[in-house]
Amino acid sequence: MTPEVFVDIFREALKLIVFMVSVIVLPSLFIGLIVAVFQAATSINEQTLSFLPRLIVTLVALMMSAHWLTASIMDFTYRLADMIPQVIG
């Protein structure tokens, strides 16, 4: 295995991880920002008001993107398995 092949595989894996995490985290961050602005404007300092909407949005994002996330990781795994002869020989 040459270092270039290892770097390419590692780069692909990191890119996939970033895409998968961003699909889940970014909606939660946006909702958290909206709730924080609302809390700052109204001076409401309720802990559950900031936690519950983020939890719900994260769960909805997981439900909506679960098929794509699973298909992406399976595709990557299949490509890794197909590359085994190239890497070894």
Could you characterize the architecture of this molecule?
The chain is mostly helical and 89 residues long. The protein has one domain. Helices cover 92% and strands 0% of the residues. It contains two helices and no strands. α1 runs antiparallel to α2. It is elongated, with a radius of gyration of 19 Å. The protein starts with a helix and ends with a helix. The relative contact order is 0.13.
Low-confidence stretches: none
Secondary-structure element string: HH
Gross morphology: elongated
Largest pleated sheet: none
How many beta-strand runs?
Answer: 0
Helix amount, in percent? over 70%
Number of helices: 2
**Total separate domains:** 1
Q: In whole angstroms, how far apart are the ends?
A: 8 Å
Percent of sequence in beta strands:
under 5%
Rg, Å, rounded = 19 Å
Structural class: mainly alpha
Mean pLDDT: 91
